[in-house]
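Per reviewer request, we include the raw input and output of the structure prediction for the construct analysed in the revised manuscript.
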Amino acid sequence: MERKISKEQVRNIRKMIVELRTNPGGLWVREIARRCGIHMETARRIIERHPNIFKEYADFTAYRINLKIIALADKKIDENNYLKVIGRRGVSKE
C-alpha cells in the first residue's frame, strides 16, 4: 500500500523541482540536496519514490567517471502542477 506524503515532503519535492527547472541539464543528488537545504538521503528517497517526476541518467566525465545525474522526467512538470503527477490523494493532512 502506498504511504501518504507529508506536507514537508511536498515542500521538498517542490524545492527540488524548482532547482531542476533552473538546471535543465540535471544535477547530482548531493548538489540538489545542498541547494534545497535538505539531507542527501531525503533527496535520494524522494527521487526513488517518484520516478514519474525525476529521472536518473549517467554522464561520463572527461576522466571516464560515470556520474548519476538527476533531471525532471518531463519538461512540463513545474512547481505548480507537480501535485497532479503525485496525485492529491497521496498527500496527508499533517
